[in-house]
Specification:
The chain is an alpha+beta fold. It has helices at residues 3-9, 23-34, 53-62, 87-104, 117-124, 153-156, and strands spanning 45-50, 74-80, 108-112, 131-139. Bound molecules: flavin mononucleotide.
């Protein structure tokens, strides 16, 4: 798929098949995150990838009871260093690379922003001084949702100045 088609076809997937992602495929997707740009090329992030079934299940209550967190093939947490200026932006770029790489390979993803920071940090063993920026679930889609609506271009884009 070309990038345009991949972007058009990506959806948030919240229903997954009970199927493992082969390690080499997961590594190919993670490699796309590694290639993401970052402010001053600092790459101030780490990813924690959870594939263990029991560990994923334990994340459900931490992620506001979102059941599909326990049903996906992998939960990926983006970890940033809050002292680095663009860290959260950098994590977001890397995570979107994952979402698009996964869609390109027929896998589904859903960003997970609804979680308890302290509990997720503890569950994943993230050290004090780092933060979980955002999570993402990944797996084989068991649904094919329609595209969600978007605001019209006229509401989003202004030309030459904001006014
Ligand atoms: C930063 C961020 C956090 C999100 N957190 C959640 C979440 O916790 N649970 C969820 O079901 N969807 C979450 N989403 C997915 C959005 O609801 C979804 O992207 C939006 O409704 C548009 O749908 P689409 O991704 O299918 O185009 C999140 C998306 C982003 C970008």
């Amino acid at each position: 798929m070309d990038v345009t088609t991949t972007i058009q076809k990506r959806r948030s997937i919240r229903k997954y098949k009970n199927k493992e992602i082969p390690k080499d495929l997961l590594m190919q997707i993670l490699e796309m995150a590694r290639l993401a740009p970052s402010g001053a090329n600092r790459q101030p992030w780490q990813l924690v990838v959870v594939t263990d079934a029991e560990k994923k299940k334990a994340l459900v209550p931490i992620c506001k009871e979102q059941k599909f967190v326990g049903e996906c093939s992998a939960f990926i947490a983006g970890i940033d260093d809050p002292t680095q200026k663009w860290a959260r932006v950098d994590v977001a770029i890397a995570m979107e690379h994952i979402a698009l790489a996964a869609a390109d390979k027929g896998l589904g993803t859903c960003w997970i922003g609804a979680f308890d920071q302290e509990k997720l940090q503890a569950a994943l063993g993230v050290p004090v001084g780092k933060a979980v920026t955002v999570g993402m679930v990944l797996g084989y889609p068991d649904e094919a949702p329609e595209a969600r609506t978007r605001k019209p271009m006229s509401e989003l884009v202004r030309w030459e100045s904001y006014a």
